[in-house]
Amino acid sequence: MKLNPSKIVDCTIRDGGLVNNWDFSVEFVQDLYKGLNEAGIEYMEIGYKNSPKLLKGAEAAGPWRFLDDDFLRTVIPQKGTTKLSALVDIGRVAEEDILPREESMLDLIRVACYIKDVDKALQLVQTFHDRGYETTINIMALSNVMENELLEAFELINESVVDVVYIVDSYGSLDYKDMLYLVDKFKTNLPNKRLGVHTHNNMQMAFSNTLVAAEHGVELLDASVYGMGRAAGNCPTELLVTHLKNTKYTLRPVLEIIDKHMIPLREKEEWGYIIPYMITGSLDEHPRSAMALRASDDKDNSVDFYDKLTTPEVSFDSSKGTK
Amino acid sequence: MKLNPSKIVDCTIRDGGLVNNWDFSVEFVQDLYKGLNEAGIEYMEIGYKNSPKLLKGAEAAGPWRFLDDDFLRTVIPQKGTTKLSALVDIGRVAEEDILPREESMLDLIRVACYIKDVDKALQLVQTFHDRGYETTINIMALSNVMENELLEAFELINESVVDVVYIVDSYGSLDYKDMLYLVDKFKTNLPNKRLGVHTHNNMQMAFSNTLVAAEHGVELLDASVYGMGRAAGNCPTELLVTHLKNTKYTLRPVLEIIDKHMIPLREKEEWGYIIPYMITGSLDEHPRSAMALRASDDKDNSVDFYDKLTTPEVSFDSSKGTK
Fold first, then answer.
1. Looking at chain A, which residue has its C-alpha nearest residue B266?
2. pLDDT band at B313 (very low <50, low <70, confident <90, very high)
3. A258 Cβ contact list (under 8 Å, min separation 6)
4. Which of these, A167, A153, A148, lies nearest to A117 by C-alpha position?
5. Taking every annotated instance into account, which residue ranges of this chain make up the domain Pyruvate carboxyltransferase (chains A, B) (predicted)?
6. Are A169 and A200 in contact (CB under 8 A)?
7. CB contact under 8 A, A204 and B278
8. Residue A53 — very low, low, confident or very high, per pLDDT cuts 50/70/90?
């Protein structure tokens, strides 16, 4: 029996940090790393490798926002089989902070970008690749990208050294047919690249879309324990672990993390299927307007929120930022 | 442009009643009926048409457990375009309580049964059909049915007058490939019957599986507002309303119901993606053991629960009842 080629990239700390401003204790992260190892998960994305000097308000965030190798070594004195990953954003990473891989705790560096910055992202990828890291490029907000732009990006990607190219459903607006369409498009146009998928759960389709992608040859599957991630959250790690066939994953260590850490955390912090996030997902837009609503006193007034988003002549500040 | 043939059967009161023992106020049900009409939803399943004299402990349940036509007329003095449906269970319905359709508030009567009772279910269907109702047969727990039993049942169904045959994912254990398999099986073997689908959300696949079924010709789609239903709940009505293409549905009236009734109700009652229900779903079994756990003081101890369900030699009473 052929082993399932899927590899899970657990993003609990990185994407979940967008919920609690990376306020995870060292014990939390250590327990998570231990559990993911025991569960057989291939990658743990332990945070962002952005530089605090390139980001406003950096001092308020937890250490997982700006990973430092010396700090990481104290957190994880002994690495297991689960590799460590970090995400960087274009324009927020100081290249001089990136050690050669053999001196670093990190194995994989992923570059997130919008379609217009694919060229810049690939320059960063080249740098990380030259320093020995595995690399991915994660093109966000694909549901808002026109075909001609995507095809141009594919040309650049095909000429690059990047290992894995991600299909990212930033707004949680894709259904299985959209996912099948994108997987086919990426496979056809990037015949020599491996693929990854990152979903959001606004419409309760994060897990099912990830399954569809895996079934059609997408190899790296982003997930987070109990779905913790910005706004509606991500594909739940526990569902992939329990449902994917012909894998070596075990569910029990993930349940231990959920019982000990995620259930109490969910009492304090909010993510998941929440109606304003469903609305932004169904309208195929960024959740920032819904996040603003959820932080307000009017958080359960989804009718007014829906009216504002769907009435063209109404100006609704928090929904109008850059994408 | 061809209008989408899908028809939504909103089961909030009937399946949601399994959560709160049908303790919905008349105002709640009236608001729901008004909202479903405004949203363009075709059917509202307003409860069970079982007979209290055939069921123990009946006196404790709300009136939607044992629908009475005189009572229904006071609740809905003026019917809109949304038809009314009731579910009956084998052996719990007194045929003498069923009025001819022209004297009744109900339009559709659905018979739920396990595979071994398909013959009895079809006898009931014949009675309701003769009294003028639209009818469905809902074969529960299909994921636990062997092929030969199913094919025998199809023969009986093909000889019957039943209008619609349901694919029911009682345990929330099916993924999109299972759903495609069942839809194909039902279509091939029941060429002259219309199909319906009823899903549960244990693995966060209720909505996506319903979409897959709809896309492949299944016409009646069960759902409930905010997903309210036993244990992990159902496919959320709001997601079908907003996502199905070429329909006349409008989301706003469903949001009004959610804001006014479902958000406060969810504070008091529990349903949805909850880890013990995920576990029973992934193990393809009835959620009753998880429901017992959630009613206990140990409700968030999913590791012990998982150990009990997956250790063959451990006897675990609440998981051993009849299916």
1. A274
2. low
3. A225, A226, A238, B275, B302
4. A153
5. 6-259
6. yes
7. no
8. confident
Question: H-helix or E-strand containing B112?
Answer: strand B108-113
What is the domain-level CATH number for residue A253? 3.20.20.70
Residues B231, B307, single domain; the answer is no
Q: Are residues B279 and B163 in the same domain?
A: no
Number of other CB atoms surrounding residue A227 within 10 Å: 28
In angstroms, rounded to a whole number, what is the distance separating the alpha carbons of residues A27 and A246?
32
This complex has an ipTM of 0.93
pLDDT tens digit sequence for A117-168: 999 999 999 999 999 999 999 999 999 999 999 999 999 999 999 999 999 9
Based on the structure, what is the number of domains in chain A? 2
- Asked if residue A305 and residue A235 are part of one domain, the reply reads no
Cβ–Cβ < 8 Å for A171, A141: yes
Contact A239 B203 (CB under 8 A): yes
A150 and A288 fall within a common domain: no
Helix axes A176-189, A206-215, angle to 10 degrees: 40
Q: B175 CB near a chain A CB, below 8 Å?
A: yes
**B267 token code pair:** 């504070």
- Residue B2 counted as domain residue: no
Name the residue facing B211 among A175, A303, A306 (closest C-beta): A175
A272 in contact with B, Cβ within 8 Å: yes
**Enclosing domain of residue A311:** 282-319
Contact A273 B278 (CB under 8 A): no
